[in-house]
Every structure is written in C-alpha cells, then in structure tokens.
Amino acid sequence: MARNTEAVCRKCRREGFKLTLKGSRCDTEKCAFNRRSNAPGMHGARKGKLTDYGIHLREKQKVKNYYGVLEKQFRKYFGMAERMKGNTGKVLMGLLERRLDNIVYRLGFGSSRSQSRQWVSHGHIQVNGRRVDIPSYLVRTGDVITIRNRPKSTKAIKTVIEEGSREVPEFLYRDNADIPKGVVMRLPTAEDVTLPVDSALIVELCSK
C-alpha cells in the first residue's frame, strides 16, 4: 500500500500553517513548527514569491496533507465531486470530511488523523455493528461508529478521549459510555471544515 513517509513537521513548515498532524504534540513546545516556521530546505528562509500556479498547487497540497490522501486518491475524490450536484469545491471538501478515519478523529477517538487511520486499519472500529478496516470508507447520515468490544481497543481509545480536549463538531454526536460511540447526525459540509482553504483554487487547478 502506497503511503507518504515524509516527516510530517516538514509538511506544516512547507505550507506555513500548523496542520496538527502529530495530535497533542502540536500544542506543546516540542512542536517543530513553533521552533522553525520557515519552509524546509537550505533555501527555506529565502522563500520567494509564489507564481499563480504555485498558489493553486499549495492549496491542493495543503488539503492532501491535512487529510492524509495521496494524489491518486485525491483525483478520485475530485472526479466524484465533479459528477455530484452543487459547487465542486465544496462537495470535494465534504467528501474528504466523510472519510472514516477523519470521522474517528473528529469524534476524538484518535489524537491525530494518522492514529485514527491506524485504529481503522487495525480493525478497532465498527460502523453499524460491523468491523470496517478501510480508512477511506465514506460514512452516511445515521451511521453509528463504535469501538470493538475488546479490552485493548476500549482502553486505548478511552485514554485518548480522556486526555484530549477537542470539541466534537455539530454534525456528530459522541456518547462517552463504557464503550464510546459516535453518531453521524448529518453529512458534513464545507462549512464544517476547520482548515482555512480556498477550494475554488483547487478546482481551477484540477480542471486544467
């Protein structure tokens, strides 16, 4: 399975924006972005003005890094968004928010999207009572996200919930029972995305 193995802190520095890819570590003094916010590389401190193409590209790369998707996956989502009704850019962001690994993260079950992706891949998460180990699974309205009733799974994720302070978005509901669960109250929209991004620039770039 293809994956991006680049140091995640370099991604934040390249975008000039903290993407919180390391979870709670990003809120501490150990965060590399706090120490060095300039772009990575020997010429990072002398970064010049971006071209029009560069501005468009950076918006797309920011979204890809934020959700942890590769180019082929991103193109797939863009193609889906083009075929659906509504503003393509907003539909695209809504689709990315519907990914199961993102929903697990937004529910507070994982300290970062990468950890949430690992919970899903290792079979710790169930959707409507059935185990789903595909991080890219798109949730629907009414889906119930639960942790598998196994001591190791429950203990690990409950620890993350207790240590975290992230608010659950309004399109989701979390029940902090003995076995925590979440419910998708409605499909997320572009307005639910916390990342500051101009999706119109992404559409212009990918439509060429």
Tell me briefly what this model is.
With 208 residues, the chain is an alpha+beta fold. 42% of the residues lie in helices and 8% in strands.
Question: Can you characterise this structure?
Answer:
This protein is α+β, with helices and mostly antiparallel strands and 208 residues long. It has three domains: 48 residues, Ribosomal protein S4/S9, N-terminal domain (Ribosomal Protein S4 Delta 41, Chain A, domain 1, Orthogonal Bundle); 62 residues, Ribosomal protein S4/S9, N-terminal domain (Ribosomal Protein S4 Delta 41, Chain A, domain 1, Orthogonal Bundle); 86 residues, Roll (Structural Genomics Hypothetical 15.5 Kd Protein In mrcA-pckA Intergenic Region, Chain A), CATH 3.10.290.10. Helices cover 42% and strands 8% of the residues. The chain has a five-stranded antiparallel sheet. A hairpin with a 5-residue loop joins β4 and β5. The longest helix is centred in the first third of the chain and has 16 residues. It is globular, with a radius of gyration of 18 Å. 32% of the residues are buried. The mean pLDDT is 84.
